[in-house]
């Protein structure tokens, strides 16, 4: 029996695809029409290739056309041939937070489920332990680092947040949330300004110089669901939050009591899935986040793809969607490099690199 055709759906965004070799496709993916992938935009359907990659991003003064952000994908599989192996810490030692040392790029800070927040190098040598729970019931879930103020901040699974200097001296250790602290972020332009996100359904803003306890926050931003992340924009003027259900919010530092915008988006929480976190582009007012299709989501369509979605941070409009048929998993974490010309997407055991440089080499 011939497979049923997928009904046509209206899309306001563009799906950028990397063409896939038919020999590497599974029989199911080769079903005619039912699973056929094509790039659709507001205009005629078309398939995108690397010839128009990054067009419009050359001039930093002008916001690029939405369809010119990313147009090709290079899959970079991490392995011993590419990077030196880092010593494993065994079962239960999952890394929950990672930041390069801003003073030495051969080192990185890591929080983990083994109950430590530490500084180590790529050979696996632990250079300093900043925080240790000394119990299997408490572990660290998040961290951030400020080079200018020489501070390290980390949060744990029971609501505590610890602030230390880079010499390892503890400045304070306080219970700031009722439940797990999923994300901590220091403002890049005003590093005494701290945002913390928690599964207690709140994001809180703090002045680290005046923290005296859980009631000393400057602002509390209630959410309808537990919160995965709270990220400051590169100019420090906006805050992006991602809940564990279907909502992305943008707040302004001039008006914390009400979000500037709400973006409906399917990224529900699943126990065995790395929490999905939306992130800013470092140069433009753009938001990138992985999609986890939800049949209960209002705009869900049949055969919806697990795309990487790019939104306009002002209007909340979908600008484009990125998708690679060879890597159809859920992209939980997406991060641009500081220049904004390369996007890394973490997906299971793979990291997908969307890069301007890669597009040039493919021509």
UniProtKB/TrEMBL annotation:
Phylogenetic classification of the source organism: Eukaryota, Metazoa, Chordata, Craniata, Vertebrata
Biased composition regions of type Basic and acidic residues, renumbered to the chain: 1-11, 26-36
Cellular compartment(s): Chromosome; Nucleus
This protein's GO CC annotations: chromosome; Cul4A-RING E3 ubiquitin ligase complex; nucleus
Protein name: DNA damage-binding protein 2
Assigned keywords, A-Z: Chromosome, DNA damage, DNA repair, DNA-binding, Nucleus, Repeat, Ubl conjugation pathway, WD repeat
Pathway: Protein modification; protein ubiquitination
Ranges for the WD repeats: 174-216
Organism of provenance: Aotus nancymaae
